[in-house]
Design brief:
Blueprint: E1 2-6, H1 11-22, E2 26-31, E3 45-48, H2 54-63, E4 67-72, H3 79-84, H4 86-106, E5 111-117, E6 128-129, H5 140-158, E7 162-168, E8 170-172, H6 190-198, E9 205-208, E10 220-221, E11 223-225, H7 226-238, H8 240-247, E12 251-256, E13 262-263, H9 264-275, E14 281-284, E15 295-296, H10 299-305, H11 313-331
Helix pairs in contact: 1-7, 4-5, 6-9, 6-11, 9-11
Length: 334
């Protein structure tokens, strides 16, 4: 199977491309390199360009007429940045995706696997969320993801396009061979920041928000090994038609998470357990747009994709730390 991967030079896009290859499939990468490093495309069919470039999309399909599905991962993803730059987020995540969806449908490539986010769920009293639970996105980033979900629903209802929407929880770690990983120079996500602190690249880790309505006052997340997440994409493209058939609708929502909520303080304790030493911390108010948190009910992924997480939290943390030590050799910076 040949799969177009938008954002395939990014953190999760490159890991997913490798998982596709290991399963015997061929990724075709489309990435603007706005964020993703060129090194993560080496050895793969790669097109540098914008997802809204219809001429480029036609060229890709002309040169790869056997593309079976598209995994749409290209997006701006930093919550505080989305608060500061809402126009750029709505333009790049929503408007450009509409061009992509329409052109792929016209080209006869209607299978779309879309990377969404669990951060759009409304807060639940017990924090566990199912795909049918209410949504209440709290940042421009999360709202762009919800808008794209709604666009896919409407386009799929009106056209031949079909969509599987994966609502990710919080991926950490990298591929088993440490070939790609979290690449942003100025880390914004909690585990890369913790890893850099544990490795001595930062003086301390800042806990943002300590009076939230959770068991210890810090944000709660469902952490999942990035390799498990990548393998969920493989299952979804392999089972695409059967999922749509089982759903009885032209689109499907599926949570991809480990099914266990971990607070920031609990995560810090886990990192300390893995590295065998304390991680220095400071405290600060919550960042603009941050959600209190949630964890996945992943029963639907098990039922439709025959997928479950395999790696433990400690495994994922160890993977993130190992990549943190190696990434300077790969990317040239710590």
């Amino acid at each position: 199977m040949k799969v177009l991967v938008t954002g395939g030079a990014g953190y999760l896009g490159s890991i997913t491309s490798k998982a596709l290859e290991q399963a015997g499939h061929t990724p075709v990468v489309l990435d603007s390199l706005l964020v993703g490093p060129r090194q993560f495309t080496e050895g793969r069919a790669f097109y540098e360009g914008d997802i809204a470039d219809r001429a480029l999309l036609r060229r890709i399909v002309d040169e790869h007429p056997d593309i079976d599905a598209t995994i749409h991962m290209a997006a701006r993803i930093v919550v505080p940045e989305s608060v500061a730059l809402p126009y750029e987020y709505y333009r790049d995540n929503v408007a450009k995706s509409l061009e992509l969806f329409d052109e792929l449908e016209q080209l006869g490539k209607p299978r779309i696997l879309f990377s969404s986010t669990a951060s759009l769920y409304a807060l639940q009293p017990a924090f566990e969320v199912r795909e049918t639970d209410p949504v209440e996105p709290t940042s421009p980033y999360a709202r762009t993801k919800r808008m794209m979900e709604m666009c896919l629903e409407d386009i799929a209802t009106a056209t031949s396009l079909r969509a599987i929407i994966l609502r990710y929880f919080n991926p950490i770690g990298t591929d088993p061979d440490l070939e790609t990983g979290y690449h942003l120079k100025d880390a914004t996500h909690v585990v890369p920041l913790l890893a850099q602190t544990a490795l001595g690249y930062r003086d301390s880790f800042t806990i943002t928000g300590t009076d939230l309505p959770t068991r210890d006052g810090t944000g709660l997340r469902d952490y999942i090994h990035a390799w498990d997440l990548a393998k969920a994409h493989v299952r979804a493209v392999e089972k695409f038609d059967s999922v749509i058939e089982a759903e009885g609708a032209p689109y499907s929502y599926i949570n991809i998470g480990g099914g266990d909520g971990v607070t920031v303080k609990e995560l810090i304790a886990a990192v300390e357990r893995v590295v065998g030493k304390p991680v220095p911390t400071t405290e600060a108010p919550p960042r603009p747009g941050d959600a209190v948190g949630a964890y996945a009910n992943a029963d639907k992924a098990a039922r439709l994709l025959d997928w479950r997480t395999e790696a433990s939290l400690d495994d994922a943390i160890a993977s993130a730390l190992a990549w943190g030590e190696k990434r300077k050799d790969v990317l040239g910076y710590e």
